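FAQ

Q: What does a record look like?
A: Structure on top, sequence underneath. For example:
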């Protein structure tokens, strides 16, 4: 079975993954409740060894799990900062070494990079381990006694690749207590999985066709071409990451497990600061609790507050990759927040002067547009291959003013055709409608209250639309989840 999974590949949008789910779900509900966590652990191990074949990576992950498990048990009887520091440093050592040595070797060795042994999900499960050890040390949670259950907490297959990053107190009891069968959980899980496929195949991978084409020949597509590519990349990244989170939540729901939300409609944000309260919330919360607040947060004056923001976003950049381009991306977001704080009163006074009332439709539209533009500009170093390419793209973006290119029929043929554009635009309209609706009511509950015919009609229609219009099929390789690379 493992050989088959490796042959065909396994990710959250592949057939072998759903074969694994189809086998694990009935077995989970058949075995006694107090042993159902064993089924989850077995499925997680099977999933993990199917996506990474290097035994050295398994060994490294196993050592990390054993070290952090032992540190948690020791902290139970000895609340020692030395034990906490040792447990965190040893557990985080693989991630720290990869990021820091890549960062500092780049300027020295150029394009040469070390060939690392990188376990899948390293960035995500490392933060989960750090928060676990910190919670144990602070007495917020009891250490896990059962080594197998602790391994499940780290390895649970719906979230190991791309999160969300869970605190022990948020998820552990759900993993090990054993849930009874409920049809509503199966139905909700299936709906979430369908929505995840929609986001991935109808939006993220459609937008990627244009984005990849422009960034691959950025010198040939300056000005408005680049602006459109940046806007679409923002949408692509959001839909891609939200898709993975949604698929993870859907798979977990099949077992009666509820994973935390990772997004709260971030493009409705009125500021970059609010954007980070709505975007990748599990990472934002982790950075706030374990970097920003321990540094002093905003308690020691504005100067120290701004320094803490800069440090926090540098850490965020390094978490994404050991490269100066990610540091630049983090610094841009830090500077956005600092500049926003320093100019807030002036900006509000100016808007009032020109007659734009606080909270009005125009006010919200301006704020949201401005936030989207700033966030999209920051994606340049994030998406570009290097700082040199980032500079070239940024120069081309502002050097050429050519909005008339949208009238050129060839504009719609860059990586896509007209039918792709129509599907993407209609899919974005659906995403916008769903997002606005979700801000007002629980859409899943609203659908659940409908008749059986309506519920099944929506589900079957969704499958048919994705099957007909989704970006996949012969000659097409489904785009890897973007955050799976971090």
């Amino acid at each position: 079975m493992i050989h088959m999974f490796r042959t065909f590949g396994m990710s959250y949008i592949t057939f072998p993954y759903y074969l694994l789910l189809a086998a694990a779900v009935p077995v989970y509900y058949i075995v006694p409740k107090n042993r159902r966590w064993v089924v989850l652990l077995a499925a997680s191990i099977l999933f993990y060894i199917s996506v990474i074949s290097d035994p050295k990576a398994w060994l490294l992950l196993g050592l990390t799990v054993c070290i952090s498990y032992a540190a948690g048990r020791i902290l139970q009887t000895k609340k020692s900062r030395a034990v906490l520091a040792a447990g965190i440093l040893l557990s985080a050592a693989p991630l720290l070494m990869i990021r820091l040595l890549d960062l500092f070797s780049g300027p020295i060795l150029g394009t040469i990079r070390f060939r690392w042994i990188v376990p899948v999900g390293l960035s995500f499960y490392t933060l989960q381990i750090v928060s676990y050890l910190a919670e144990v040390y602070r007495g917020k949670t009891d250490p896990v006694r059962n080594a197998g259950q602790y391994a499940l907490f780290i390895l649970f297959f719906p979230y190991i690749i791309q999160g969300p990053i869970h605190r022990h107190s948020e998820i552990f009891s759900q993993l090990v207590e054993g849930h009874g069968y409920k049809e509503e959980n199966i139905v909700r899980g299936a709906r979430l999985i369908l929505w995840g496929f929609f986001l991935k195949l109808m939006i993220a991978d459609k937008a990627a066709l244009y984005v990849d084409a422009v960034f691959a020949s950025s010198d040939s597509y300056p000005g408005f071409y680049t602006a459109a590519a940046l806007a679409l990349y923002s949408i692509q990244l959001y839909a891609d990451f939200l898709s993975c989170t949604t698929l993870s939540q859907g798979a977990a729901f099949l077992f009666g497990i509820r994973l935390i939300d990772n997004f709260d409609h971030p493009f409705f944000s009125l500021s970059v600061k609010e954007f980070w309260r709505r975007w990748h919330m599990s990472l934002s919360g982790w950075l706030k609790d374990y970097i920003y607040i321990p540094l002093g947060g905003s308690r020691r004056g504005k100067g120290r507050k701004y320094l803490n923001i800069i440090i926090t976003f540098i850490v965020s950049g390094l978490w994404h990759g050991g490269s100066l381009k990610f540091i630049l991306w983090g610094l841009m977001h830090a500077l956005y927040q600092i500049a926003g704080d320093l100019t807030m009163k002036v900006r509000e006074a100016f808007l009032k002067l020109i007659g734009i009332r606080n909270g009005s439709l125009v006010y919200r539209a301006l704020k949201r547009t401005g936030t989207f533009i700033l966030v999209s500009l920051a994606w340049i170093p994030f998406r570009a291959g290097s700082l040199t390419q980032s500079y070239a793209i940024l120069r081309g973006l502002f050097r050429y003013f050519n909005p008339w290119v949208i009238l050129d029929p060839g504009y719609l043929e860059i990586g896509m055709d007209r039918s792709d554009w129509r599907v993407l635009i209609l899919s974005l309209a659906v995403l916008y409608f769903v997002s606005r609706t979700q801000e007002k009511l629980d859409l899943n509950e609203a659908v659940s209250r409908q008749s059986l015919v309506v519920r099944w009609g929506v589900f079957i229609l969704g499958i048919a639309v994705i099957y007909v219009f989704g970006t996949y099929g012969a000659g097409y390789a489904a785009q890897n989840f973007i955050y799976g690379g971090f």
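Q: Is there anything notable about this one?
A: The radius of gyration is 23 Å.
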